[in-house]
């Protein structure tokens, strides 16, 4: 039997990824990717390169069109209610948050805990309050998502994903549209999560983020990959990224578009 | 979870037909309409069975979350509509029943009053009118809410949290609407019968309240109560199924929401009429 400690968190072999909105439209082909426990991956790509669909496939929201995708050793193609335990080991933060608009931020954060754990109300309320305080969301807890800025919506989405203390956290373009102060907070907080945050169980977390701007993610501790021309290219550590001559990587590092007349 | 929605909507992918070129002849058009109708029917049937399955299988799952949502939906499809239904009951009584009573009295046929009232109000007009009003007031809201939730990715977010969208979004709406239509129909019938008599009384129809209600009670059999309950619950269940199905199935974009709302309402009306016809057959057989 394989050792659960060393089983790859994410394992893709020759996987083809379809678009969530139309599975017959292939956005990525022949993806070979393995993520070990405790790694921090940054997957970069331009708009419409398939970043969101790759994360949704990884989270088990859809099956690969071809090939194999495993999460904690379990085939995601068969992710149904019998594999709920595996599903709950993964947290997914969507681009823009995708919070439930009819619920307040507190109710949004509490929902997974109330649905899956069925804790007594006071115990559940305490756990939710702790997380809200950790993410500085307490003053906005009773407000609905439509009435807070994108900065706080994104943070509430992070709180919701962390509520069940996942082992793997997938974040789709988490810094997009955030103010510099919030971006700084996110980089610090994700780094603490990766190392093991006391407020989230204290266990080091495996992280995968997607981005269109590589600059904020510069770090020797992270692994990088690039999505380009429907292909997945592992780039290695930051030194390898910095030394590459790939024009797309250069553009993602500059993160600016040069307008020519 | 993921499978539940995919199963229902994968069965009834009507987009190919809708996007295809216009047919060249009337027979082609008729054939295409027939295929569309059958595919939609298949999708609706699958969705109804899946929802029933989830209701039974997850009866004890997350009751702390689903219970309050069911109460909320009962309030929305029932209690919140009570003032409007009382107004409609008064109007129905004054406009239709009162005139029927006075017409019967004029030709000396008041002995048929009970059976006429039971057939017109209890069996037909009451349940159908209640179903149409709930479809208009709550069914449309279902399509818009679910269509928007689907288009803005809330349904995906539920799946990512391991929450079955059918259990969280559909089951409370289906139960709420079934209970709502049943309760509102009872209130509508009682209100209409009482206000109908008041109108007849104002017109000096020689009929005492005792005789009036004795005739109605005499014309009502146990089967009327059983079929009334079954019919109204079926109305509520299928209106919720049709509106939720269209809300969740098609609108992957916000601009689709208004189009599917119109489609859901027309199909809701057709489903109610078909259920009504089925119950007429049952009345005739029994």
Rg of chain B, Å, rounded: 22 Å
Largest sheet of chain A: 6 strands, mixed
State the oligomer: heterodimer
Number of DSSP strands of chain A? 10
Strand percentage of chain B lies at under 5%
Helix-and-strand structural type of chain A:
alpha/beta
For the biggest β-sheet of chain A, the strand order reads 6-7-8-3-9-10
Helix content range of chain A: 25-40%
Number of helices of chain B: 11
Principal-axis shape of chain A: globular
Number of strands of chain B: 0
Order of helices and strands of chain B: HHHHHHHHHHH
Termini of chain A, distance in Å?
62 Å
Radius of gyration of chain A from the CA trace?
18 Å
Low-confidence stretches of chain B: none
Q: What is the succession of H and E elements of chain A? A: EEEHEEHEHHHEHEEEHH
Describe the SSE topology.
The complex is a heterodimer of chains A (261) and B (286).
Chain A: E1 10-18, E2 26-35, E3 40-45, H1 51-58, E4 66-71, E5 74-75, H2 84-87, E6 90-93, H3 105-117, H4 121-134, H5 150-162, E7 168-171, H6 180-195, E8 206-211, E9 223-228, E10 231-236, H7 238-243, H8 247-254
Parallel strand pairs in A: 3-8, 3-9, 6-7, 7-8
Antiparallel strand pairs in A: 1-2, 1-4, 4-5, 9-10
Chain B: H1 2-11, H2 15-19, H3 26-57, H4 63-77, H5 82-106, H6 113-151, H7 154-160, H8 165-202, H9 209-219, H10 222-249, H11 257-285
């Amino acid at each position: 039997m394989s050792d659960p400690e060393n089983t790859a968190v994410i394992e893709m072999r020759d996987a083809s990824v379809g678009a969530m909105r139309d599975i017959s439209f292939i956005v990525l082909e022949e993806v070979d990717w393995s993520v070990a426990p405790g790694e921090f991956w940054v997957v970069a790509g331009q708009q419409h390169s398939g970043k969101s669909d790759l994360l949704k496939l990884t989270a088990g929201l859809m099956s690969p069109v071809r090939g194999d995708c495993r999460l904690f050793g379990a085939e995601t193609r068969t992710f149904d209610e019998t594999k709920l335990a595996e599903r709950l080991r993964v947290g997914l933060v969507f681009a823009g948050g995708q919070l439930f608009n009819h619920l307040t931020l507190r109710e949004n954060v509490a929902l997974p805990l109330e649905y899956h754990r069925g804790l007594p109300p006071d115990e559940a309320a305490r756990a939710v309050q702790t997380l809200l305080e950790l993410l500085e969301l307490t003053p906005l807890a009773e407000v609905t998502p439509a009435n807070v800025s994108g900065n706080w919506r994104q943070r509430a989405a992070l709180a919701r994903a962390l509520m069940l203390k996942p082992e793997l956290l997938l974040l789709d373009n988490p810094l997009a549209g955030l103010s510099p102060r919030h971006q700084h907070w996110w980089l610090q907080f994700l780094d603490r999560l990766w190392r093991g945050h006391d407020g989230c169980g204290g266990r080091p977390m495996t992280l995968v983020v997607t981005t269109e701007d590589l600059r904020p993610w510069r770090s020797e501790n992270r692994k990088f990959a690039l999505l380009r021309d429907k292909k997945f290219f592992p780039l290695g550590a930051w030194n390898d990224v910095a030394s590459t001559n790939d024009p797309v990587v250069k553009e993602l590092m500059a993160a600016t578009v040069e307008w020519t007349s | 979870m993921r499978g539940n929605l995919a199963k229902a909507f994968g069965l009834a992918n009507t987009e190919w037909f809708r996007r295809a070129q216009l047919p060249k002849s009337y027979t082609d058009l008729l054939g295409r309409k027939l295929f569309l109708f059958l595919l939609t029917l298949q999708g609706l049937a699958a969705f109804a069975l899946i929802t029933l399955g989830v209701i039974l299988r997850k009866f004890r799952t997350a009751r702390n979350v689903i219970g309050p949502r069911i109460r909320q939906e009962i309030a929305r499809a029932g209690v919140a509509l009570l003032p409007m239904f009382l107004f409609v009951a008064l109007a129905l009584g004054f406009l239709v029943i009162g005139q029927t009573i006075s017409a019967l009295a004029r030709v000396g046929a008041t002995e048929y009053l009970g059976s006429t009232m039971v057939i017109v109000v209890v069996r037909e007009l009451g349940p159908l009118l209640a179903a149409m009003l709930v479809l208009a007031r709550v069914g449309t809201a279902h399509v818009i809410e679910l269509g928007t939730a689907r288009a803005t990715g809330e349904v995906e977010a539920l799946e990512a949290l391991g929450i079955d969208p059918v259990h969280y979004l559909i089951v409370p709406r289906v139960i709420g609407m079934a209970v709502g239509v049943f309760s509102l129909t009872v209130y509508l019938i009682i209100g209409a019968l009482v206000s109908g008599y008041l109108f007849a009384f104002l017109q000096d129809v020689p009929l005492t309240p005792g005789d009036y209600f004795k005739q109605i009670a005499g014309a009502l059999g146990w089967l009327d109560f059983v079929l009334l309950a079954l019919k109204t619950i079926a109305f509520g269940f299928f209106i919720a199924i049709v509106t939720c199905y269209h809300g969740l199935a098609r609108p992957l974009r916000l601009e689709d929401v208004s189009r599917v709302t119109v489609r859901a309402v027309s199909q809701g009306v057709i489903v109610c009429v078909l259920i009504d016809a089925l119950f007429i057959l049952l009345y005739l057989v029994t």
